[in-house]
C-alpha cells in the first residue's frame, strides 16, 4: 500500500543555476556570502554570478573542461568554495568535494572513482593533491590553487584568480527528462559497507530538495510565529562544504 504526503508542491522544470540566479527573489547589493574571518570580504548575488561565470570561462578555456567533466575541490571552507561548486556546473561539468583531511591514498581513490579532470586545492593541501594527481596521471596544469590575488604561486600552477576569464553562460534547460538525468554533483557516501561510493545528484534532485526545504519553511511560518521554527536569515556555514548538505545553504541565501 502506498502512502503519500498530504502536502504537494510543484517542482520547477529548470536547471539549478537558472533556478538560483533567475528566481523572483529581490536582487540587491548586500552580501549574501560573508567571510567570518574577514567580514569586509563578501559577495552579493550579482558578484557571485559574475565570479561563477568568469571562473566557468577559465575552466573551459584554460583548463579545457568539457561537457560532463568532473571538477574536484580539496580545500577548507572559504568564500571561494560556493563559487567553485557553481562554476563547475556553469561550465557544463559536474562538481565533487573531497574531505580536506584525506590522505594522498584516500584522495587518489576519490579521483579515480569520480574521474575528476581538475583539482582545486589550497597551499596547505597542495603536496597531498600533487601526490594523488601524479598517481592518477593528472598534469600539474590541472591543479588550481585557491589563493589570494596578491600571493606568489608555486611555479607551474594556476591560481584561482588566473582562471577568472571572459564570462561563460550556462546552458538553460527546461526539458524535464534532461533535468532528471543530467548530473550536477557527485556526493560521496560515508563508506559504511566499504569504500565511499559516488552518488549522482541531478539538477532535478537539487531543485526538488530546495523546493521541499523552502516549503517546510513556509509551513513553519504558517504554523507558528516562533522564528526558531523557521529558516534563519543568517546562516553560519560551520559544516564542511564538501558534505552532501552543502548545497542547501547556497540555495537558502540565493533564493
TrEMBL record:
GO MF term list: CoA-ligase activity
AMP-dependent synthetase/ligase domain sequence ranges: 43-248
Sequence intervals crossing the membrane: 79-102
SUPFAM superfamilies from the UniProt entry: Acetyl-CoA synthetase-like (SSF56801)
Keyword match Glycosyltransferase: no
Pfam families: AMP-binding
Keyword Ligase in record: yes
Keyword entries, A-Z: Ligase, Membrane, Transmembrane, Transmembrane helix
Similarity comment: family membership: Belongs to the ATP-dependent AMP-binding enzyme family.
Name of the featured protein: 4-coumarate ligase
Species this chain originates from: Fusarium mexicanum
